[in-house]
Amino acid sequence: MPLTDIGDTTAIREDAFAKINLALHVTGQRSDGYHLLEMLVTFARHGDTLDFALSETDAFSVSGRFGDALDDGGTNLVVKARDALRAAIQQAGGDAPAVRIHLQKNLPIASGIGGGSADAAATLRGLMRLWQVSLPQQTIDAVALGLGADVPMCLHSRPLIARGIGEDIENVDHMPVFAMVLANPLRGVSTPEVFRKLDNKRNPPLPAEHPSSWMEALGGMRNDLEPAARALLPEIAAVSSMLADEGAMFVRMSGSGATCFGIFATAGDAEKAARRLQDTRPDWYFQATETLAGGTHAGNR
Length: 301
Description:
- By secondary structure, the chain is α+β, with helices and mostly antiparallel strands.
- Helix content is about 30%, strand content about 30%.
- It has helices at about 75-90, 115-130, 135-145, 150-155, 190-195, 215-220, 225-230, 235-245, 265-280; strands at about 5, 10-30, 35-55, 60-65, 100-105, 160-165, 170, 180-185, 250-255, 260-265, 285-290.
- Mean pLDDT is about 95; it is low at about 1-5.
């Protein structure tokens, strides 16, 4: 997290890594409508970046490939995270002065890889460093969960298993690095509609034991949302087939879509595949990346 510049001021930078659901099992539904999930999650080294600097007044700006598609007003999760954290700090008797935040939006919007949630989590991390404050972990966790079910996972930004609605987190310190291509047809799919189309909302959980072979283990897991998402957006099947045709050893949709990932034997293979795929469909999104190894996260890489 190097220092960078916003205008004439020195700022703190935080990475908002893409969240990859290697597996997503829907195991039930609560009385309030929230679905119970078990997710095997890792994070890619590719993502958005946020810069933070003290300012006379609060300001928020956006740039990057997907910046024009993003709301930069009060409904943005970055702004909501800033305001929620400030309220928690002030309630605890601390000071949270005005801040200028700039988001470089490199991830597609609403694409199943946690872009908005990752941005919110990076905002919490960055502002706590900029404001030089510490809060009880219970308070930080409550702020994160209040912003969205994926934000606690993104606050960790390390390989993990998440259960419940996403708040029950267990680190997976033995996960290897995966060379990967992220692929998205740049068409949205509605997460609520995907859940509504589920045929079965009470599926088996993730395996309890730690795998000796990760590729074999992934093959025995599922994304229970993928069939419904494919029915809503046929391009998901098309992009998955393109990844497989380029030599991916394993292909699956992440989250509720429409981003799919392909795992490749080497980073070089992934980079070559991403270039060929982008040449074939320049109007779609393809990104070669590597995931974080178990035991590393946004603040330790």
